[in-house]
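Human:
Care to share another protein and its fold?

Assistant:
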Amino acid sequence: MFRLYESDGCHLCENAKQLLGATAVVLEGCELIDIAHDPMLIERFGHHIPVLEHSATQQLLYWPFDEVSLATWLSGLANQTNQAL
């Protein structure tokens, strides 16, 4: 349901994973994608990682994000999903 674009050794990515770990809904359904192995992803996200993507809507949440901005973003996704039903 979610993808986290990240890279091994990225301290900001580690911070984002810790934050997502506190949000079980996101972490349980989060695919970790290391951009270092894909030139297109490096070009797209290289200067922006970590980036969280909602798979269904392809909406992106760029770092820096915190508990409040993550909760607001997730709430917006939930509202969109409910409206689509």
Remarks:
- Helices lie at 11-21, 24-28, 39-45, 67-84.
- The chain is about 50% helix and 20% strand.
